[in-house]
Amino acid sequence: MLENPLTSVVTGVRRPAFITAALAGCGLICSFMQTLVIPLVPELPQLLSTSSANASWIVTVTLLTGAVCTPISGRLGDIVGKKRVALVLLGAILLGSLLAAAATTLVPMIIGRAFQGAGLGVIPLGISILRDTIPAKKLGRAVALMSSTLGVGAAAGMPLSAVVSQHFDWHTLFWLSASLSVIGIAAIWIVVPASPQHRNARFDLLGAVGLAVGLSGLLLAVSKGADWGWTAAPTIGCSVGGLLVLVGWSVYQWRASNPLVDLRVSIRRQVLLTNLASVAVGFGLFTSPVVMPKLLEMPSTTGVGLGQSMLVTGLCMMPTGLIMMAMSPVAARVSDAYGPRACLILGIVTITAGYSLALLLMTQTWHTVLVGCFIGVGIGFAYAAMPTLIMQSVPESETAAANGLNTLMRSIGTSAASAVITVILAQDVVTVDGHDYTTTTGFRLAFATAGIASVVALIIAWAIPRPRRTDVDTGTPAEDRTSMSTT
């Protein structure tokens, strides 16, 4: 009998390499959606016959749906099956891509981008599927690779989008994303086995609605505060209202028998500190994509900008994402040898070194590439460690929800970085030829802010306890669990 290439003779399950490749590919597709329209942002008002303020919702809505759907889809995955929910999310990307590909006005474009943003939940679901299907001795490397796709797809998407938007009709971007989502659906359907289901658990619909409303309020205030005004009524209303809803939601979750997010697990020291560190690391991750393109594309006549094209800017940003993926196996080895806590600390130290270097080197194009490489290495190590730290502290039945919450924390950090760094860059400006441009001091202040956030992340990571090498669910030593999973 011929051997099925997807099946292991030893274990009787699909080969880990195929599963990892399929899930990582889908992770790249989903993260690519986050930066798909970034090169188009200046042209969107003209392309869709709308104002700049209205066009900004095309970016904002993706952030909102991604942040809201990620923890909700994680909990659904724990209950009805992670593979099934991952297929639904990829289907949402396909639907959103088709809507955007046919759009000529603002409303269908916003709806399409909302569906595309929902796909971000595939990444934490994929990490949890790996825990269910990959032998323990190979799990660290697979998780590191999957986690890195969150940054790799976003970094690689910018130059690809720039090339397509410069040489083809802009709708081609969305036909491309539709094609990629079809490939992702086929890969998950064929390669990834069904994951465990916990149908005895009830989905907390009220908790999901409360989380969606509370998060939407806070993220709207953060992402639109610069446009509305930080002291304007809509900004204050969204932020205060969001906080109040989340406080009430937390009280309800604590008392619920089947909560959307088990706060008793979430406040465990290792889980809580890892999530807090994720916010600061997310801030460090997104500062570079906000600052570097502005520095690269500003006219050289300003005395600060490097005068590069949108395509060159995208190519300069790409190494950050590629290095994240290249570092994933190295990070996995470090995590196996010294523990995920040490891997996280090493990553944060490298991020801090990168932003410290940026304070000194910002006058040549290669300077931005060098700084991006430091940040890419650091993020690669940090993102590889965080899911492992989470999974060491939560039951198997809650891995998808816990990883979804951790991804949400990263998203909160990136959202905060976008808002804070944008304000900083807009405050210290000089007028050249009738246009305002950020000064050297403004750029250095932005880099220093990201460095401070990294130091905060380092302090938090240092406080994370060193975990015992035992399986969370059964108390079985990790080495024993490895042998059990391969028999």
What does this structure look like?
The chain is mainly α. The chain has helices spanning 16-32, 44-47, 52-55, 57-80, 82-101, 106-118, 122-133, 136-167, 172-191, 205-228, 233-255, 263-266, 269-297, 310-338, 340-360, 365-391, 399-427, 440-462, 478-485, and strands at 429-432, 435-438. Strands 1-2 form a two-stranded antiparallel ribbon. The chain is globular and about 65 Å long.
Layout: helices, strands, pairs:
Layout: H1 16-32, H2 44-47, H3 52-55, H4 57-80, H5 82-101, H6 106-118, H7 122-133, H8 136-167, H9 172-191, H10 205-228, H11 233-255, H12 263-266, H13 269-297, H14 310-338, H15 340-360, H16 365-391, H17 399-427, E1 429-432, E2 435-438, H18 440-462, H19 478-485
Helix pairs in contact: 1-7, 1-8, 1-9, 4-5, 4-6, 4-10, 4-17, 5-6, 5-7, 5-9, 7-8, 7-17, 8-14, 8-16, 10-11, 10-17, 13-14, 13-16, 13-17, 13-18, 14-15, 14-16, 15-16, 15-18, 16-17, 17-18
Number of structurally distinct domains: 2
Query: What is the approximate shape?
Result: globular
Oligomer: single chain
Largest sheet: 2 strands, antiparallel
CATH class of the largest domain: Mainly Alpha
Low-confidence stretches: 1-13, 469-487
Report the count of strand segments.
Answer: 2
Structural class: mainly alpha
Spatial order of the strands forming the largest sheet: 1-2
Membrane topology: Multi-pass membrane protein
GO cellular component, one term: plasma membrane
Pfam family, one: MFS_1
Subcellular location: Cell membrane
